[in-house]
Amino acid sequence: MVGTMALLHAFTRTSRGRGKTATAPVVTAVLPADDEVLLDAPDDALGPALVGAAHGDHAPAADLLAATRHTGAWEHRDRYVRRLAAFARSRPDWLDAWRTLAPHDPDGLLVHAQVAVDRAWVSPARAELLREVSPLITAAAKADNRDPVPWRLALDHARGARAGHTYFEELWAAAVRRAPHHYGCHVAALRYLASSWHGSHHECFDFADLAAQDAPDDSLTQALPLRAAFGYLTDGCGPRVPLERLGAAADRAAALSARLPASHPWPAELRNLLTYVLVRLDRRPDALEQLRLTGPYATSFPWDRDADDPLGRFLDVRREVGAAVASGRTPGHPLSEQGGRVRFGDH
User: Do 162 and 113 share a structural domain?
Assistant: First the structure.
């Protein structure tokens, strides 16, 4: 426990106190029809880049990522890099052309490194392959010293390679120097904590709560406790976390969701995750409000954890939530008396 807490403190900064947050008031929800719901829809900036890539043209993607780098839009940059890398895994021609024409371009280097890590991650030889891609991450980090996204990738890489705590702390320090509240880096650190101390959910919550308290009100890091709650609810091991702490994590994320634009693709993953957690906590009116704010935008995460068809799962849950709220039904307690976790079908 001493070692756990020492590393936990190394990951956190002095927190500023904040008051309690509350969920947004529930209103009558008119949801889009099932056939209007889109899975993992790109926003207006990413869409043209994906279309260009589909036609073998890397220029729109290069322009998009260059703009995020020049303006310091690190959260958008991180999301765009992930989506472009996912596309390049099955359609690499445009990325290959980009790398050939501009081998030292910081944006092309970063997408290339993300692709390499993603491919290694799903291989049975993960640790060995991840060691081989280390130079790609280093090159992306050196290409623009301000950019935190290569350091998020380095943190993910370190977790997959089973790096020691000292090395991970060094990466973490480098990441937060560049962007103290970058959500992707915080999620990577939370995942490392969870994988290093399996079942130590209280430590994960401590880290997430401190990070959220320290973050600006409009930062996605406000939703980090929600990620900790999701990890706890889907893990099935470790000491029981009080229901009040799970509820507070959901409340903080709901307050953030209320400040973000409604029916827009980029906050959709936050709202899909929040819906998932709220349903697990049997807070269906609050879940319905998140579904209203989400509009037609479903995301694969977190629904792909429970189903091979994440869109179908999202629609099923949406129907169940709407019917429960309309009928006034109140399901049973979300957590068993034995301290276990339950799945949707267990209600």
Answer: yes
Q: What pLDDT does 27 receive?
A: 46
The one-letter amino acid code at 79 reads: R
Residue 39, pLDDT score: 98
Q: Which of 129, 157, 180 is the last residue of a domain?
A: 180
Q: What is the pLDDT of residue 192?
A: 95
Whether a cis peptide bond, with omega within 30° of 0, leads into 334 is: no
Which segments in the chain show pLDDT lower than 50? 1-7, 12-27, 332-333, 335-347
Q: How many other CB atoms are found less than 10 A from the CB of residue 67?
A: 15
Residue that terminates a domain, selected from 180, 214, 246: 180
State how far the Cα of 72 lies from the Cα of 141, in Å rounded to an integer. Answer: 15
Domain that holds residue 279: 25-41+222-347
Instruction: Give the count of domains, the chain.
Output: 2
Q: Give the orientation angle of helix 183-196 with respect to helix 2-11, to 10 degrees.
A: 170
242-249: long-range contacts, CB 8 A cutoff, minimum separation 24:
243/281, 243/334, 243/335, 245/205, 246/277, 246/281, 247/281, 247/283, 248/20, 248/21, 249/205, 249/208, 249/209, 249/225, 249/277
**CA proximity to 113, closest of 44, 174, 65, 45:** 65
Taking only the tens place, the pLDDT of each residue in 282-298 is 999 999 999 999 999 99
Q: Does residue 106 belong to any structural domain of this protein?
A: yes
pLDDT of residue 22: 45
